[in-house]
Amino acid sequence: MNFKDDLNSEQYAAVTAPDGPTLVVAAAGTGKTRTLIYRLAWLVSERGIEPWEVLLLTFTNKAANEMLSRAEDLVKRQFNSGFSGTFHSFSNRILRQHADRVGFGRDFSILDADDSKKLVRNCADELGMDKKKFPKPDVLLSVFGVVSGRQSDLEDAIEERFQYAEVDVEDVLKVHKLYTEKKRSSNSMDFDDLLIYAHQLLDQHPDIRTLYQESFRHVLVDEYQDTNLLQAAIVRQLVSGHGNLMVVGDDFQSIYSWRGADFRNFLDFEGAYEGATTYKLQINYRSTPEILDTANAVIAGNPEQFQKELKAVRENGEIPRIIRMRDGATQARYIIEELRQLERNGVLPSQCCVLYRSHFHAMELQMELAREQVPYVVTSGVRFFEQAHIKDGCSLLRLISNPSDILAFSRFVELLPKVGAKTAQKLFNKFGGRVNVLHEETIDQLGDLLPAAAQESWQAIKPIFHSYREDQLNEDPGEIIFRFNKAFYSAYMQETFDNAKFRQEDMDGLIDFTAKFESVESFLAEVALLTNLDADAAVQAEQSDDQQMLRLSTVHQAKGLEWKVVFVLFVNEEMFPSRKTLEEQGDSEERRLFYVAITRAEDRLYICAPMVRRQRDGGIQFLDPSRFLEEIPDEFLLEEKGFF
DNA sequence: GTTTCGGTTCTTTTT
DNA sequence: GAACCGAAAC
To answer: What does pTM read for this prediction?
Structure first.
C-alpha cells in the first residue's frame, strides 16, 4: 500500500496529519470516506496503533462496517473493536457494561420511537391531562429530545415551544418527570437516554472515563456537522486525555438541526480544541462540472458557512435538466420512460436513484412502477424492526430479558383476545411491575388472571416458557420466535392482517436474521439501533438480484451515497422546501438539503417540478417551482418542454 | 367497564 | 397506510 500514490495531495495531508485535534472540511464527493479509511490504515500501519485502539463514530452502522472492512483489506488485519458505529450504538455498548453506575440494570430495554410515544401517552393520561388541549406525545418528545441534545433548559424550551398555545408549563414538566421515572422503573432507555446516560457515565465516573480514554487512543468522527452538543460532549470526554481526535464533515451538508444537531460544533472546532489543525478537501471526483455549477449556485444562497467551492476535475457532461410536467402521474411516467431510455444506453436501474423530500411524495411513482412492473426498492420510512408484526414477535424476547418492561408486557398480552390496554395495565400492576415469565408460578398465576377468551391462546403459548430453560433457548432467539410463531402468532396474523402472507415472510426473515446473534440479550441490544440502511444491508446480503433495482429514497437517507443518475421529485414550493419547516425555521436547512440531493449525482441530474398535485380528496393544488430553482442561473439548467 | 370495529383524517426529515 | 375517535358489542 502506497499512501502517496493512492491519494491526492489534499487527502494525503489529512490522512497523515500528526496526532492532536484535527478538522477535515470535506466538500461533497471529495473522497471523504476514502480519507477516513486511509487514516484508519495509516494509524495502524505507520503509527503502530492497534486496530482495536481506534474508535470510529459514524451516522449509520453500515457506514462504520464498510469503512472498517475496507481498512482491514488495506492493512490485512482485523479491525472491528466492537465499539465503532453510531453514537447510539457506541453509547449502548458502554452502557451494557456499566449501566448499574447510572442506576439502570445492564439488561435495560431500548424504547424505539413508537414505544416512547406510548409511554408518554400513558404518563399524560395518568396525570389526567386533557386529551384535546394537551400536546401530542411526538410533539413533547421532540422538545425533550432537542433539549437533551442541546443540553439546554427544559422549562425555557417548553415555554418557547408552547408560547402561543394554552399549555401549562408545569403540566409538561410533570409529564416529563413521570416519563423519566417510568423509564427508570421499567429499566428502559429511549434513544435520547442512551446518549444522556453514556455522557453521564463518562462525565461523573473518572475511572470509567479513564478506561475508555486508554482503550481508544484515537477517535474518528464522520459527519461531524450533524452531531449535537451532547454528542460533542461525549467525544470530548473520550479524548480529553490524549486529544487524538479527527472529525470530518461538511457544514453545507448539515441537515439534522431539527433533531438538535448544531453545525457550530463543526464551525467552532478550532475554538473548542486548542491547537487544532484544519485540512480542506475540495477536489470533487464524483460529478460533472455542470452538476457542480448547479450545486455551487444553490448553496451560494447560504452565506454564513465555511467558504469552500467544489472544484471539478471530471470531463464536461450534460447540463442538468428541469422538467415541468403536468402532475405527479406524469412525473412518474416521465421517469419510467427515461429509465427505459437509459437502460437502452447501458445505464442500469441500479445505477439510478429517485430522491424526494418526504416519503409520501413518492406514492404515485411507486404505484406507477408497480403497474409497469419496474422493480424498485424503497429506503423505507417505517423501519423493519418498527413494523407491528416484527415488534410483536420481539415483545416476548423483551419480556423474557427484562421482566420490568411494561411496554413489552402490554404488547405481548394485548395480542390475546379480550385483553386491551386496561387489562394489560391491571395485570402488570397485580404483579408489582415485574412479570418474570421464566417463573413457573408467575406463568400459572398469569394464566389464572387472564380472561376466559384468552385461555386457549395462552395454553398454546405456555409451553414455550417451559422449554426455554430446558432447551437453553437463551442462546437461540430465533428458535423462540419460531416456536411463538408456530404456536400462536402465525394464526393470529392470518386473522388480523389482510397481507398476512407478506408479513409471514417478514417473520421468517426475522428468524433468519437472529441466527447471527448468540443470545437474546445481544440480539435485543442491537436491533433497536439498526438504521434503515443497516437493515437493508442485512437483507440485501442474501438477495443478489436486488442489485438490479432502482432505488427510491428521501434525501436524508441518501446522505453520503452516490448514483450515476439522480431524479429529484416535486421540487416545488410547499414541498421542497417543505411548508412546515419553512414556518418553523426558515429555508437555509432546506437549501442545504437540496444541495445534498444535487451532489448525489455523478453524470445526470433530473429536476422535476410538476405544475399541479392531486390531493387525496380529489381536488388539485397548483404548484409553483421551488424558490431554489430561481436561484440557479438559467444557463445552468436545460428546460425540457412539451412533456405532458 | 373494556374491547373491538368502522369510519375519518393527515402525512417531514430519523437515531 | 396507520393513528385517532366514537359507537357498537361483549
So the answer is: 0.89
